[in-house]
Amino acid sequence: MSTYGESLDQFNRTTTTRRIFDEDETLATEISKTNMYVALSTDGESPEHFTDHINDDENLVTGPSRNALKEFRLSKTLKDIFSNMKAIDFTPIVSKSDGAYITPQESNKTINFESDEKLRSFINTIIEKEFPPKNPSPSARDVINIGNFRENGALYGPGTWVEIEGPDMKWRLDMITRSVKQAPDDWDWNDPNNEDKEPRWVYYYHAGSDRRFREEDVRSSEEGLKRVFGNRPWIWQQWAMLKLEEKLRFQEGHQHDCMEMDVQKYGADLWDNWLEHPSNLEFKKVFNDDRVGNFGRSELLNHIQKPFHLIDRLKEDKDEWNFDDDANISVFTYTSMLGAGAMTPMVVLLIQLAIPIIFFCEALSELRCTSTDAGDHLYARLMSLIIFVLYTVTVFPDSITRFYDVEGAGDSVYSRLLSLRRQLWDQGDDTITQMIGYKTDIVMSAGYESMLSMFNVFLILNTVDALEILLNALAFVFVAKIDEEIVNSSWWDPQNRW
Q1: Is 129:152 a contact under the CB 8 Å cutoff?
Q2: pTM of the predicted model, to two decimals?
Q3: Is the terminal CB of the chain with fewer CB neighbours within 10 Å at N or C?
Q4: Is 323 in contact with 412 (CB distance < 8 Å)?
């Protein structure tokens, strides 16, 4: 009868191995804990070195009888389970009824199906944790995030319910399925000075099919925080925003100018003064409770300070809010946001409406005066075909992108601005000038260019001169971009501060 050590040596020599993720792989970050069952059949006492190899006595659950199949339930991360192993094989070790081990060659003939099923079940478990079923329902306890910070540095781990800011600038409740750490972009692994040093990791979070959310786009849920701290912090937030609105100015050179004032510091100072006020001792006691922990206090501050943080991001974040790189912002966008300077947008609107009307009237008069068949002009037909192909590969995709931007689904500055503007419209806090500018901006962005393209197709089909077809197409492109080209001119807000 073979001993356990001899059978295990033979098993390790003959089975096929698989590589394990390295320490720096993203799976080595805190992944959701997975329950695995390792089956072991022995003809004597369980070897001590096998227990030491597992290195987790707390989670070891032995079977009731000797010489029987024993299960070890491991509740550890994949990294910890295989920390001392160079390879892994999913083929289970089995024994015959007399206690003798089946060789891997023999077992391949008898248990391939069982092995494949276990491997498939293991993979399905990982996939289900990474992409959970649609619309999972959290409990009241699931949305509460308090306590201490995680040892690995990530704010949130798999299974944590949080609010995530989408492209439409709205916060929605979702569950984190994975946290991924990455070195900063300016970290040089080849720099000798960085040897034996660990970078300040940047963490990204996955929520099902939505990937790589930054930490500033994730926060603890309002519902969970209110269950711990009550409604007072949100009442304070409304009061603080009113104080900021009263103090903030659009006046270049003023100490409280929107581009100069440190809005986040102003909000933090208001919070500290409110927290230390003698009439607020009851809330301060809850805020400093040990059960809340540093993490719970940090999450509350992160949540209620988000509006102040957003204002500073608009000024300073040149990646997410780079106004220079977005050509879709028009004079109507300015009127929609500021509610002032309506004279120039009105003139531009009249020009953009008058030019197509004049074209249309002239085209109708020419159609009445001529009966020439456009099909007899080869060059005109070729030029028409070229313009149609151009519209197919440019105007049609651009129109779809514009609709995404207008509805707040696009990843652009213009789309995010319209999303914020829509929230103001829903609240009914805008002026008449702002409302007119907002609706005009939507119509001119989403429908005007498409309307011009369709009108140009009508002209092309009734034009017999190739040069005239080309000039008309170029003219309509110019007319469609007038409201946006003015914004890019040197005399209109050259520093994009407004």
Answers
A1: no
A2: 0.66
A3: N
A4: no
